[in-house]
């Protein structure tokens, strides 16, 4: 039986593969998800296992072709694939461009012209052109970029929203047919012996080798993805030219890492990388190192006004209290504003209930640009607030507080704080269509769901639904609906079915003992608060120690 392995460069392709593979029962077809280097590593492993042929797509397929000795089939983008993605992108109501090589842009340009879509096309001839072109497009006001995996990854790096051009069922099925035909017409390939390489990988999870000309010979990173810059590798090469063994340490977004280098046979430079414990490991502190720019819904006047006000306060480096009910977008907006103002600088979120004040000095050694105090209460955390305000000027960080309660204006003035209150979803219904479209696009990218649009009737229905946790609940509704929808437009009927079947009803044992009813109420509140004991204790009007004791009883 023919053995084929498909390396999907993005996870949303999995659902398409699950539909296509059963159509070819005469072949043994398996699949994995891995882009570029990860995809190459998968392909090398599968070659060692005796796979007859690899199927992949785009840049990942090109990398694999250069490295393996078995045939590789590239999944092509069909006109149908382009039409589907371009139709979805045209509904986002933000300046959008498609960036890719001639094989993508030629067909895309024809479809865009035919359908009168508001999307511009830019053709590249080398992967080296991608970064500079995307930076120019960002300066020109573009927010969304369509393209292959390399283009999308670069888009995220420069702060743009990337949308992947995905291959549909027809394209994948055509590639499998071609693969089976190719294997049947070619003689069986000679299997290269990888025993030594396998032993090397088993011994070292992360290893890379260069020759005397500093040309890459081999790379296997299990814990990292290209952790060092070219300039850093060059410095390491120079150090090895002087010393036959070296050890260096680096702090990267992927964490703290150690690099050990050795010179073999006076020609080959071999480096072994290992992950070290994080520099920042404090109770109640979360450091966000990789955040993506996302579109912000501002069709409603309340949303637009608050976003502009927060932008103004961020630029002035004011200490700000952002209040609002759970799920109104406090954390999302704060992160997006940080990305807009200080994308490359550290962003830290603190759980004010559990953070230890004596750790503040240690935290500031990380030199965060934005510090967010979550679960903040003026009554319980005055000492923490006072310490943060005192340290702000000397350490140049922005201070943001998230709270579910409004503050007295006299308190705000006394502390020198600015205040922005986030409206509930019911007060910003004009944003419903934008939010639904953003979520729809995300789920299409992540899960490969079918819908690429939403009907006006569905949006009108969504505007009149009650959302317990506002935007967070709306997102869950859209997610579940896209999983159920069989058509390309998300309908009112499917959304209505999801809303009606997922509405939770509080049912407590009224015929039990007081203790049994109390346990049922605590369990319900914990479920609604995603098992966050701090939030549950606040809602129940007890402290965390009391809640913990009741859970233990």
Automatic annotation (TrEMBL):
Keywords: ATP-binding, Nucleotide-binding, Transcription, Transcription regulation
Pfam families noted in UniProt: AAA_lid_14 (PF25601), HTH_8 (PF02954), PrpR_N (PF06506), Sigma54_activat (PF00158)
Transmembrane segments: none
Domain of life: Bacteria
UniProt domain Sigma-54 factor interaction: residue ranges: 290-483
PROSITE patterns cross-referenced by the UniProt entry: SIGMA54_INTERACT_4
Keyword Nucleotide-binding annotated: yes
Protein name: PrpR N-terminal domain-containing protein
């Amino acid at each position: 039986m023919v053995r084929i392995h498909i390396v999907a460069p993005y996870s949303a392709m999995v659902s398409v593969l699950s539909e296509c593979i059963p159509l070819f029962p005469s072949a043994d077809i398996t699949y994995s998800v891995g882009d570029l280097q990860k995809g190459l590593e998968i392909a090398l492993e599968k070659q060692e296992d005796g796979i007859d042929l690899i199927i992949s797509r785009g840049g990942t397929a090109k990398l694999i072709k250069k490295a393996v000795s078995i045939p590789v089939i590239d999944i092509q983008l069909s006109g149908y694939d382009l039409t589907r993605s371009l139709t979805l992108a045209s509904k986002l109501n933000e300046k959008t461009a498609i960036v890719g090589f001639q094989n993508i842009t030629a067909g895309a340009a024809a479809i865009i012209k035919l359908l009168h879509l508001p999307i511009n096309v830019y053709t590249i001839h080398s992967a080296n052109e991608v970064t500079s072109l995307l930076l120019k497009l960002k300066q020109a006001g573009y927010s969304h970029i369509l393209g292959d995996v390399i283009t999308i990854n670069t888009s995220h790096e420069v702060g743009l929203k990337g949308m992947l051009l995905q291959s549909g069922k027809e394209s994948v099925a055509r590639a499998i047919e071609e693969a089976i035909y190719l294997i049947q017409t070619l003689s069986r390939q000679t299997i290269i012996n990888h025993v030594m390489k396998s032993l090397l990988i088993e011994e070292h999870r992360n290893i890379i080798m260069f020759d005397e000309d500093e040309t890459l010979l081999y790379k296997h990173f299990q814990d990292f993805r290209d952790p060092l810059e070219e300039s850093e590798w060059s410095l390491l090469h120079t150090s090895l030219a002087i010393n036959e063994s070296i050890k260096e340490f680096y702090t990267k977004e992927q964490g703290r890492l150690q690099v050990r280098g050795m010179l073999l046979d006076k020609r080959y430079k071999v480096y072994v990388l290992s992950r070290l414990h994080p520099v920042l490991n404090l109770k109640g502190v979360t450091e966000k190192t990789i955040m993506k720019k996302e579109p912000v819904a501002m069709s409603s006047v309340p949303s637009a006004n608050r976003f502009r006000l927060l932008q103004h306060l961020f630029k002035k480096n004011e200490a700000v209290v952002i209040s609002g009910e759970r799920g109104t977008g406090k954390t999302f907006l704060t992160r997006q504003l940080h990305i807009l103002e200080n994308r490359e600088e550290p962003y830290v979120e603190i759980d004010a209930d559990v953070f230890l004040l004596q750790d503040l000095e240690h935290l500031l050694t990380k030199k965060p640009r934005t510090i967010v105090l979550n679960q903040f209460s003026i009554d319980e955390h005055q000492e923490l607030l006072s310490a943060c305000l005192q340290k702000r000027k000397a350490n140049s960080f922005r201070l943001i507080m998230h709270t579910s309660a409004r503050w007295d204006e006299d308190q705000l003035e006394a502390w020198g704080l600015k205040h922005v209150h986030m409206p509930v979803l019911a007060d910003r219904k004009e944003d419903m269509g934008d939010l639904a479209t953003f979520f729809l696009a995300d789920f299409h990218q992540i899960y490969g769901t079918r819908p690429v649009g939403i009907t006006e009737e569905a949006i009108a229905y969504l505007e009149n639904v009650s959302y317990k946790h506002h935007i967070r609940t709306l997102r869950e509704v859209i997610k579940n609906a896209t999983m159920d929808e069989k058509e390309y437009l998300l309908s009112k009927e499917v959304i209505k079915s999801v809303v009606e079947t997922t509405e939770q009803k509080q049912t407590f044992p009224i015929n039990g003992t007081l203790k049994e009813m109390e346990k049922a109420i605590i369990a319900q509140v914990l479920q609604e608060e995603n098992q966050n004991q701090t939030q549950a204790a606040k809602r129940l009007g007890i402290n965390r120690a009391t809640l913990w004791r009741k859970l233990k009883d």
